[in-house]
Design a protein that fits this description.
By secondary structure, the chain is mainly beta. It contains three helices and eleven strands. It has helices at 2-16, 28-41, 104-107; strands at residues 47-57, 62-71, 74-82, 85-95, 114-124, 127-136, 142-149, 156-163, 169-177, 180-192, 195-207.
Protein backbone atom coordinates (compact mmCIF):
# COMPACT_ATOMS: atom_id res chain seq x y z
CA UNK A 1 0.00 0.00 0.00
CA UNK A 2 2.80 2.43 0.88
CA UNK A 3 4.53 1.70 -2.43
CA UNK A 4 1.28 2.27 -4.30
CA UNK A 5 0.66 5.60 -2.55
CA UNK A 6 4.22 6.70 -3.28
CA UNK A 7 3.81 5.82 -6.95
CA UNK A 8 0.53 7.75 -7.16
CA UNK A 9 2.10 10.74 -5.37
CA UNK A 10 5.10 10.80 -7.71
CA UNK A 11 2.83 10.58 -10.76
CA UNK A 12 0.67 13.46 -9.54
CA UNK A 13 3.73 15.55 -8.69
CA UNK A 14 5.15 15.01 -12.16
CA UNK A 15 1.84 15.92 -13.78
CA UNK A 16 1.53 19.13 -11.76
CA UNK A 17 5.17 20.20 -12.14
CA UNK A 18 5.71 23.31 -14.26
CA UNK A 19 6.89 22.59 -17.77
CA UNK A 20 10.61 23.07 -18.37
CA UNK A 21 10.60 25.80 -21.00
CA UNK A 22 14.19 26.92 -20.49
CA UNK A 23 16.43 26.19 -23.47
CA UNK A 24 19.35 23.85 -22.97
CA UNK A 25 22.72 24.18 -24.66
CA UNK A 26 23.92 21.38 -26.90
CA UNK A 27 27.19 19.50 -26.79
CA UNK A 28 29.89 21.06 -29.02
CA UNK A 29 30.08 17.95 -31.20
CA UNK A 30 26.34 18.07 -31.83
CA UNK A 31 26.54 21.77 -32.75
CA UNK A 32 29.34 21.16 -35.25
CA UNK A 33 27.52 18.20 -36.80
CA UNK A 34 24.40 20.33 -37.28
CA UNK A 35 26.52 23.17 -38.62
CA UNK A 36 28.14 20.91 -41.21
CA UNK A 37 24.72 19.59 -42.29
CA UNK A 38 23.23 23.09 -42.51
CA UNK A 39 26.18 24.30 -44.56
CA UNK A 40 25.75 21.45 -47.03
CA UNK A 41 22.10 22.39 -47.56
CA UNK A 42 22.42 26.18 -47.71
CA UNK A 43 21.49 27.77 -51.03
CA UNK A 44 22.32 31.17 -52.49
CA UNK A 45 19.79 33.22 -54.49
CA UNK A 46 20.61 33.53 -58.16
CA UNK A 47 18.79 36.86 -58.50
CA UNK A 48 19.35 39.43 -55.78
CA UNK A 49 19.47 43.18 -55.31
CA UNK A 50 20.56 45.15 -52.26
CA UNK A 51 21.93 48.48 -51.11
CA UNK A 52 25.11 49.01 -49.14
CA UNK A 53 27.14 51.79 -47.58
CA UNK A 54 30.92 51.96 -47.82
CA UNK A 55 33.02 53.88 -45.29
CA UNK A 56 36.81 54.09 -45.39
CA UNK A 57 39.23 55.86 -43.08
CA UNK A 58 43.01 56.16 -43.07
CA UNK A 59 45.06 57.08 -46.10
CA UNK A 60 41.84 57.47 -48.08
CA UNK A 61 38.64 58.90 -46.59
CA UNK A 62 35.51 57.76 -48.36
CA UNK A 63 31.77 57.49 -47.78
CA UNK A 64 29.44 56.11 -50.46
CA UNK A 65 26.11 54.37 -50.93
CA UNK A 66 25.60 51.78 -53.66
CA UNK A 67 22.86 49.66 -55.18
CA UNK A 68 23.72 46.24 -56.55
CA UNK A 69 21.89 43.89 -58.92
CA UNK A 70 23.20 40.35 -59.35
CA UNK A 71 22.27 37.47 -61.64
CA UNK A 72 24.58 34.59 -60.81
CA UNK A 73 28.09 35.93 -61.30
CA UNK A 74 27.02 39.00 -63.27
CA UNK A 75 26.86 42.20 -61.24
CA UNK A 76 25.72 45.76 -61.74
CA UNK A 77 27.00 48.20 -59.10
CA UNK A 78 25.53 51.72 -59.02
CA UNK A 79 27.18 54.43 -56.92
CA UNK A 80 24.30 56.58 -55.65
CA UNK A 81 25.96 59.05 -53.26
CA UNK A 82 29.52 60.18 -52.50
CA UNK A 83 30.35 61.84 -49.18
CA UNK A 84 26.67 62.42 -48.51
CA UNK A 85 25.92 64.04 -51.87
CA UNK A 86 23.52 62.26 -54.27
CA UNK A 87 24.85 61.84 -57.79
CA UNK A 88 22.62 63.27 -60.52
CA UNK A 89 23.49 60.27 -62.67
CA UNK A 90 24.60 57.17 -60.74
CA UNK A 91 28.03 55.83 -61.64
CA UNK A 92 27.37 52.39 -63.14
CA UNK A 93 29.89 49.57 -63.27
CA UNK A 94 29.15 46.22 -64.92
CA UNK A 95 31.05 43.08 -63.94
CA UNK A 96 30.80 39.78 -65.79
CA UNK A 97 31.82 36.55 -64.11
CA UNK A 98 32.39 38.25 -60.75
CA UNK A 99 31.81 35.95 -57.82
CA UNK A 100 29.96 37.34 -54.81
CA UNK A 101 32.70 37.73 -52.17
CA UNK A 102 30.35 37.71 -49.18
CA UNK A 103 28.50 34.41 -49.47
CA UNK A 104 28.57 31.58 -46.96
CA UNK A 105 29.68 29.23 -49.72
CA UNK A 106 32.88 31.25 -50.03
CA UNK A 107 33.51 32.32 -46.42
CA UNK A 108 32.11 29.68 -44.07
CA UNK A 109 34.88 27.43 -42.66
CA UNK A 110 34.71 23.68 -43.33
CA UNK A 111 35.31 21.15 -40.59
CA UNK A 112 38.10 19.50 -42.56
CA UNK A 113 40.06 22.74 -42.94
CA UNK A 114 40.17 23.92 -39.31
CA UNK A 115 40.53 22.70 -35.75
CA UNK A 116 37.55 23.90 -33.70
CA UNK A 117 37.89 24.76 -30.00
CA UNK A 118 34.65 25.35 -28.10
CA UNK A 119 34.58 28.67 -26.23
CA UNK A 120 31.05 28.58 -24.83
CA UNK A 121 27.37 29.28 -25.45
CA UNK A 122 25.47 32.55 -25.16
CA UNK A 123 21.73 32.60 -24.54
CA UNK A 124 19.80 34.51 -27.18
CA UNK A 125 16.21 34.85 -25.89
CA UNK A 126 14.82 31.35 -26.58
CA UNK A 127 17.95 29.57 -27.77
CA UNK A 128 21.74 29.46 -27.43
CA UNK A 129 24.39 30.63 -29.88
CA UNK A 130 27.71 28.80 -29.86
CA UNK A 131 31.21 30.26 -30.14
CA UNK A 132 34.28 28.43 -31.45
CA UNK A 133 37.92 29.46 -31.87
CA UNK A 134 39.35 28.21 -35.17
CA UNK A 135 42.90 27.27 -36.11
CA UNK A 136 43.61 26.48 -39.79
CA UNK A 137 45.24 23.12 -40.38
CA UNK A 138 47.53 24.68 -42.96
CA UNK A 139 48.70 28.23 -43.64
CA UNK A 140 46.08 30.49 -45.21
CA UNK A 141 46.51 34.13 -46.28
CA UNK A 142 42.88 34.63 -45.15
CA UNK A 143 41.73 32.58 -42.16
CA UNK A 144 38.68 32.53 -39.92
CA UNK A 145 39.72 32.91 -36.27
CA UNK A 146 36.38 32.85 -34.42
CA UNK A 147 32.89 31.75 -35.41
CA UNK A 148 29.53 32.17 -33.70
CA UNK A 149 26.86 29.67 -34.78
CA UNK A 150 23.15 30.45 -34.58
CA UNK A 151 21.39 27.88 -32.40
CA UNK A 152 18.27 27.70 -34.59
CA UNK A 153 19.53 27.51 -38.17
CA UNK A 154 23.06 26.37 -37.18
CA UNK A 155 24.64 28.76 -39.65
CA UNK A 156 27.27 31.42 -38.83
CA UNK A 157 26.00 34.74 -37.50
CA UNK A 158 29.52 36.13 -37.00
CA UNK A 159 32.91 35.33 -38.52
CA UNK A 160 36.12 36.98 -37.32
CA UNK A 161 39.09 36.74 -39.67
CA UNK A 162 42.76 37.65 -39.98
CA UNK A 163 45.03 38.14 -42.98
CA UNK A 164 48.76 37.58 -43.07
CA UNK A 165 49.75 40.14 -45.69
CA UNK A 166 48.90 43.52 -44.13
CA UNK A 167 48.41 42.52 -40.50
CA UNK A 168 44.72 42.79 -41.22
CA UNK A 169 41.69 41.61 -39.27
CA UNK A 170 37.96 42.04 -39.39
CA UNK A 171 34.53 40.51 -38.99
CA UNK A 172 31.44 39.66 -41.02
CA UNK A 173 27.90 39.42 -39.60
CA UNK A 174 25.17 37.26 -41.18
CA UNK A 175 21.46 36.75 -40.60
CA UNK A 176 18.26 35.60 -42.24
CA UNK A 177 16.25 37.55 -44.79
CA UNK A 178 13.16 35.73 -46.01
CA UNK A 179 14.58 32.20 -46.27
CA UNK A 180 18.06 33.28 -47.36
CA UNK A 181 21.15 33.72 -45.17
CA UNK A 182 22.84 36.98 -46.11
CA UNK A 183 25.56 39.35 -44.83
CA UNK A 184 24.52 42.48 -42.95
CA UNK A 185 27.89 44.03 -42.06
CA UNK A 186 31.57 43.56 -42.82
CA UNK A 187 34.50 45.47 -41.37
CA UNK A 188 38.25 45.27 -41.83
CA UNK A 189 41.29 46.96 -40.30
CA UNK A 190 44.83 46.81 -41.65
CA UNK A 191 48.18 48.43 -40.94
CA UNK A 192 49.70 49.91 -44.08
CA UNK A 193 53.15 51.49 -43.63
CA UNK A 194 52.63 53.74 -40.60
CA UNK A 195 48.88 54.21 -41.06
CA UNK A 196 45.89 52.20 -39.97
CA UNK A 197 43.18 51.85 -42.62
CA UNK A 198 39.64 50.76 -41.87
CA UNK A 199 36.70 49.83 -44.06
CA UNK A 200 33.10 49.09 -43.15
CA UNK A 201 30.29 47.80 -45.36
CA UNK A 202 26.67 47.76 -44.24
CA UNK A 203 24.18 45.80 -46.39
CA UNK A 204 20.46 46.54 -46.31
CA UNK A 205 17.18 46.64 -48.29
CA UNK A 206 17.51 43.16 -49.73
CA UNK A 207 15.29 42.25 -52.67
CA UNK A 208 14.87 38.88 -54.36
CA UNK A 209 13.23 39.61 -57.74
CA UNK A 210 11.83 36.88 -59.94
CA UNK A 211 13.51 38.46 -62.96
CA UNK A 212 15.74 41.36 -63.94
CA UNK A 213 15.16 43.41 -67.11
CA UNK A 214 17.58 42.97 -70.03
CA UNK A 215 18.92 46.50 -69.43
CA UNK A 216 20.35 45.51 -66.05
CA UNK A 217 23.77 44.53 -67.35
CA UNK A 218 24.01 47.25 -69.98
CA UNK A 219 24.40 50.98 -69.50
CA UNK A 220 20.68 51.59 -68.94
CA UNK A 221 19.05 51.82 -65.54
CA UNK A 222 17.03 48.75 -64.49
CA UNK A 223 13.29 49.26 -64.22
CA UNK A 224 12.79 47.41 -60.94
CA UNK A 225 10.59 48.52 -58.09
CA UNK A 226 12.37 48.81 -54.76
CA UNK A 227 10.81 48.73 -51.29
CA UNK A 228 11.28 51.76 -49.04
CA UNK A 229 14.92 52.18 -48.10
CA UNK A 230 15.99 51.30 -44.61
CA UNK A 231 18.21 48.87 -42.82
CA UNK A 232 16.47 45.66 -41.66
Amino acid sequence: MIALLLAIGLTLAAANAPADTEPHSLAPGTVLARYAAALENVKEPRLISFDYTLEQTGRRMLAQTHRVFRDGNDERDETLTVDGRPLTHPLVRIFRGRRNRYTLALLAPRLGDYDFAYLGAHKDVHHFDYVFRLTPKMHRPFAITTMTIDGVRFLPIALDFATSGSAGSGSIAFGSNEHWWVPYAASARATMATEVATERLTFYTYRFPRALPPSTFSGGRPAIDAPPAGAP
